[in-house]
Each structure stands twice: as structure tokens, then as C-alpha cells.
Amino acid sequence: MDIEKIRELIKLAKEEDLKVLRVGDMDSEVHIETKGGGTAVVTENGDGSRAAGSGGSSAPGLHTVKATQVGTFYTHKEEDSNENFVEAGDAVSAGDQIGMIEAMKVFNDVFADADGLVEEILAENGDTVEYDQPLITIRPKED
């Protein structure tokens, strides 16, 4: 499924205030969930492999928050500020804002989807990011 079709599905999910939208064909399946104002997209291929738009792990024990769209990623809270949403070592909870992505003059908030400590910020303020690009890693809380 091409990226434009996925964008249309995300837009539909938001406009219709859907919690879950799942669409598939013989080659691929797209599963979209909206949570806390953010959108998580998970694409499942016909061979059972999986690409997460939000979530997944890059290293053992780490959780990776990934870009849900193409655009410019901002870590700063305001344009003329050096204050970041989060820094490495900060404690975050699922639903905390960790940045935003601007696409076509629209700013979309990016939220943590796991509780834990920010291990590393992988994208710099003002970086152009691609769909599914890792943005930050979180070390989950140990129970």
C-alpha cells in the first residue's frame, strides 16, 4: 500500500474520531489506532513481518518511538526557545509529548507510547524525518 493511501486512512481515522481502523488486501494490511491525540500506525505485511509506526525496539530492552509521517521534527517547545520537550535521562509516561512533526504547515504532536526513561534522542531539532524513522529510544520502567 502506498504512503498516500496510508495518509488518507490516517486522516479518515482522525476525522471520524475512530479508535481503530484496519484495512488490508492480499499483499498488506494497515492497522491504525488513535490514542491520546496521537496516531500510531502499524503495517503488517502478508508474510507476517511487521513495521511499527510507533513502538518496536532497536536494542534489547529499549522501546523506540518512530515518526508516523514525513515532515520536519521539532524537539524545541517554541520556535525561539532552546527548551526541549524531553532530554536524555528524563522520565516519561505514555502520552507525554516528546516533540512535534510539521508537514505542510500543520504541526502534529508526537507522544511517548511507553513509560520509562529517555535513553537517546535520535533526531535533532529541525531534522527532516521519514515515515517510520526512529525519533527517540525509551528504557521501559522495571516493575
UniProtKB/TrEMBL annotation:
PANTHER family on file: OXALOACETATE DECARBOXYLASE ALPHA CHAIN (PTHR45266:SF3)
Leader peptide range in chain numbering: none
Organism: Salinicoccus halodurans
InterPro entries per record: Biotin_BS, Biotin_Carboxyl_Carrier/Decarb, Biotin_lipoyl, Single_hybrid_motif
Sequence ranges assigned to domain Lipoyl-binding in this UniProt record: 62-139
Protein name according to UniProt: Biotin carboxyl carrier protein
Ranges where the record places region Disordered: 36-62
Superkingdom to which the source organism belongs: Bacteria
Keywords: Biotin
